[in-house]
Design goal:
Keywords: Endoplasmic reticulum, Glycosyltransferase, GPI-anchor biosynthesis, Membrane, Transferase, Transmembrane, Transmembrane helix. By secondary structure, the protein is mainly alpha-helical. It is built from 19 helices and 2 strands.
Length: 465
């Protein structure tokens, strides 16, 4: 029996190989962070991590000594300062509601679980917990993405495609953001889990009259995962598009659905799944609304309380970060658009490729057949739904976001990884396609280069972030 080799035969034990590659890549990024100038352009991190000295006798000298080192300090930059401080003392200032409620609450919950008293909950502790969550979530999201592609059983050369897809997520251009106390890693884990469960829910073709209860449970839990992801990052709301799409495409057969208990159960779980995604967005908004708009006199209420849709998130993004339609389209931001352009291209191009693909395969005699098995069509419909989500993300990032964040928020969407992986596998086939080979090679080179350079800039508290 041949022994496993992570370099020559990684598919002999793909999970072990992925863990090894993930570890190696993390060591590279950690080295980049450690070698970056300290304390960097801004001293906010130093001030934050030293603030626990105010707790006096409750200060943990060992933990404080560790958190003073460059390793943890170089992870807590930019928004990570907000995430760590909010997790430590809760939401105080209005603009802090722009930062994922779900992620800060999880950090706070875990930190308090391992703290003896409330005074032990310090910024350095929350920073360590945030970094730990991000590392673990990224590793798990790599494995979930691998399982997601494997679940698409009718893709060609699927084991190799699944492995390369997961590797691409390891070296994602999000880079150090997948290790720092940011929500990107946890969002990826939850979003990939939602997509995986959604694919599993469609494994039984709709043409089969006795749809399994397990499929509908998967569908409902997928919505819950997307909803939890939305509490981490608001763009998780876009994943609800797949449920809306399913409901809209079912409307022509609504009378038949209402008369069939199995179909009625399916459409009910689809609607409930979509509602779960909406709840993930609305719950933090309601908590903030209760705090700012349901207490005190009407004259003291904030302006956003009287809006038709009183969302504190959209308000603070608009007021404090100038987020809005075409607001980012200024000449000074042109370099940031150029930095994010490759990722925008990958999102739109992979979506276009998915919509253009036809479900044509060959039978053993070589005759072309369309949809030879119902599952093939079902899986392609899933991919088209994923493409719709990517398109919405890309277009809103282009028109309404701080555009450079597209390189990190795209890390939680599986389709573009999959399409690039398919190109890479096609390029290594006997009938080598030079165009595919050049594209795959250039894409990987860009991802690695961007992640390393961005990691050094991030750790030095320099843009882009």
């Amino acid at each position: 029996m041949r022994s496993w080799s992570p370099y020559r035969r990684p598919l002999d034990d793909p999970v072990k190989s992925l863990v090894l590659l993930w570890t190696a890549w993390k060591l590279v990024l950690n080295l980049v962070a450690i070698l970056s100038p300290f304390p960097g352009y801004d001293t906010s991190t130093t001030i934050l991590l030293n603030s626990n000295r105010l707790v006096g006798e409750h200060e943990n000298p060992i933990l404080h000594s560790l958190s003073s080192k460059r390793w943890i300090s170089n992870f807590v930059k930019w928004d990570a300062i907000y995430f760590s401080s909010i997790a430590q003392r809760g939401y105080i200032f209005e603009q802090e509601w722009a930062f994922g409620w779900g992620f800060t609450r999880l950090i706070s919950l875990i930190t308090r679980f391992f703290s003896k008293t409330e005074l032990d909950v310090s910024p350095d502790r929350t920073a360590w917990v945030g970094v730990s969550i991000s590392h673990v979530s990224h590793l798990l999201s790599v494995l979930v993405l691998y399982c997601l592609v494997l679940s698409l059983k009718h893709q060609s050369k699927i084991p190799k495609v699944a492995f390369i897809t997961a590797v691409l997520h390891i070296i994602s251009p999000a880079g150090l953001f997948l290790s720092a106390p940011y929500g990107e890693s946890l969002f990826s884990l939850l979003n990939f889990s939602g997509f995986l469960l959604y694919v599993l829910s469609r494994r039984t073709p709709l043409s089969v009259s006795r749809r399994r209860l397990k499929d509908d449970v998967f569908l409902l839990v997928a919505g819950v995962c997307f909803g939890l992801a939305t509490t981490i990052r608001s763009n998780g709301l876009f994943s609800g598009i797949i449920f809306a799409y399913d409901v809209l495409t079912s409307l022509p057969n609504i009378l038949k659905i209402l008369q069939d208990p199995i179909e009625l159960r399916r459409i009910s779980c689809t609607i409930l799944g979509g509602i779960s995604v909406a709840i993930g967005f609305m719950m933090p908004q309601w908590i903030a609304y209760s705090e700012y708009c349901l207490v005190g006199s009407a004259t003291l209420q904030r302006e956003w309380c009287t809006r038709t849709i009183p969302s504190i998130y959209t308000w603070v993004q608009e007021k404090y970060w100038n987020v809005g339609f075409l607001r980012y389209w200024t000449l000074s931001n042109l370099p940031l658009f150029l930095l994010g352009a490759p990722m925008l291209f990958l999102l739109l191009w992979s979506s276009y490729i998915t919509f253009q693909k036809r479900n044509i395969t060959r039978d053993p005699k070589g005759t072309k057949t369309r949809f030879p098995r119902p599952n093939v069509g079902q899986e392609h419909m899933c991919l088209r739904s994923f493409a719709l989500v990517q398109i919405v993300l890309a277009l809103l990032a282009l028109t309404s976001f701080h555009f450079q964040v597209i390189t990190r928020i795209s890390s939680g969407y599986p389709l573009w990884y999959l399409v690039v992986a398919q190109k890479a596998v096609a390029a290594t086939a006997k009938e080598e396609n030079r165009e595919d080979h050049h594209f795959a090679q250039s894409t990987v080179l860009w991802m690695v280069t961007y992640a390393v350079i961005q990691g050094g800039l991030y750790a030095s508290f320099l843009p882009p972030a």
